[in-house]
Amino acid sequence: MRRFLDHGSGLPTSPNVHEVAQAVDPSCEVVYIDNDPVVAAHGKMGLAEDPSTTAVLEMDMRETEKIFESPQVRHLLRKDEPVAALFVSVLHCIRDADDPWDLVRRVASQMPAGSYMVISQLASDDPALRTDITNFMAAATGNSWGEVRSLSQVNRFFEGLELLEVDDQQPVEVSLWHPDSDLAPRQRSQEWIEYGGVAIIKATSTKRT
């Protein structure tokens, strides 16, 4: 996988997606998407040293058609090679009323066969806790928060996709997904977790021009 589309990328960190990918293959290309102008400005400053393989779009990730019509993303898809679309810890920023499941479907429909969808979000099967965390985060972010969802709601993001399994589970708490240390993963919280998975797009009927 040499092409990545990072939705709701947030303020740059290190190592960021392009740094991790390009450490394996310097030809890897990454497009970051975020609707926050501060994030976009910081991202563009940090990526100025290599604009040929990295780009930042100041766009709302819900504007799928606009994103896929942008020169940066059209360039990313130019060879019709697989792309990894990342929705990491970001879909809980979208309210149910805005249908984040449809957003994921629309993005998947634009991707070449063999592409990957990487999805995770805050989840809990305790309805009262979901409401409490959602209300707290909405107040803390000036009402720019979406929803903490149940595990079954997160599972819906993967409908129509072929999930990769971890220990016969799909999706899973993200700390169980190929831990990068010899330490045993912590006991899963019974209250709330970051929950998600990785899935492959086997086929798509959408033709890009």
Features:
single chain, 209 residues, alpha/beta, Rossmann fold, eight-stranded mixed β-sheet, 8 strands, disordered C terminus, SAM-dependent methyltransferase, SAM-dependent_MTases_sf
Number of individual domains: 1
Quick check: average pLDDT?
Answer: 85
Strand content: 15-25%
Distance from N terminus to C terminus (CA atoms, Å) equals: 22 Å
Helix content: 25-40%
Total of DSSP H or I helical runs spanning 4+ residues? 7
How many β-strand runs?
A: 8
Q: In CATH, what is the homologous superfamily?
A: Vaccinia Virus protein VP39
- Could you say which structural class the secondary elements and strand pairing correspond to? alpha/beta
InterPro entries: SAM-dependent_MTases_sf (IPR029063), SAM_dep_MeTrfase_SAV2177_type (IPR006764)
Pfam families: Methyltransf_19
Organism: Streptomyces noursei (Streptomyces albulus)
Protein name: SAM-dependent methyltransferase
Brief characterization of the structure:
This is SAM-dependent methyltransferase. The chain has 209 residues and is of the alpha/beta class. 29% of the residues lie in helices and 20% in strands.
How is this structure best described in words?
- Pfam families: Methyltransf_19.
- This is SAM-dependent methyltransferase.
- The chain has seven helices and eight strands, in the order E-H-E-H-E-H-H-E-H-E-H-H-E-E-E.
- The protein is of the alpha/beta class.
- It has a single domain, classed as Vaccinia Virus protein VP39 (Rossmann fold), CATH 3.40.50.
- Strands 1, 2, 3, 4, 5, 6, 7 and 8 form an eight-stranded mixed beta sheet that branches.
- The longest helix is centred in the middle third of the chain and has 14 residues, at 127-140.
